[in-house]
Amino acid sequence: MITLQEVTKENWIDVISLSVRDDQKAFITSNAVSLAQLHFLDEFVAKAIYANEELVGFALYGVDEDDGEYWIYRFMIDQKFQGKNYGREAMSALIEDIRANKQPRHKTITLSYEPKNQAAKQFYDKIGFQEVEGLLISDEQVSRYTF
After folding, report:
1. Which residue range forms the structural domain that includes residue 54?
2. Taking every annotated instance into account, which residue ranges of this chain make up the domain N-acetyltransferase (predicted)?
3. 74 with 31: CB under 8 angstroms?
């Protein structure tokens, strides 16, 4: 069972110790940088992703100040836990958490990924995100989930 829990003084070291496979490292910012970035993002939260009682991943998401919609800035599952369906379950939990906390004006969740990262593209497509054709931010493909 997947749960989203706060990143706290008790688990933050474990969160920054999570890592993706070597071939994925070029596609994702470290969790340590993401936690530092959180101090400058007013309406964002960091969540540790647990499968039962075991830490398996991390997410950073919230309302973007530029467009006023929800964005997922970071999403990762540790390399030891990939391929076990935790990613799909965790993303579903994130979407449900956003749905439960959003205002009626919030209509979408947006994220971006490296165009070369075909595994991410396929993953997000299966969840229900749709690429925004022709929209790249910092050379990353933008994809959007609509409520």
Report:
1. 2-146
2. 2-147
3. yes
Reduced to 3 states (helix: H, G, I; strand: E, B; else coil), residue 46 is strand
Residue 133 CB contacts under 8 Å (≥ 6 apart), including other chains: none
pLDDT in tens, 63-109: 999 999 999 999 999 999 999 999 999 999 999 999 999 999 999 99
Residues 6+ apart with CB under 8 A from 72: 59, 60, 61, 94, 109, 110, 111
pTM here is 0.93
Q: What is the pLDDT of residue 8?
A: 97
Task: Enumerate residues 6+ apart whose C-beta is below 8 A from 43.
Answer: 62, 63, 65
Q: How many domains does the chain have?
A: 1
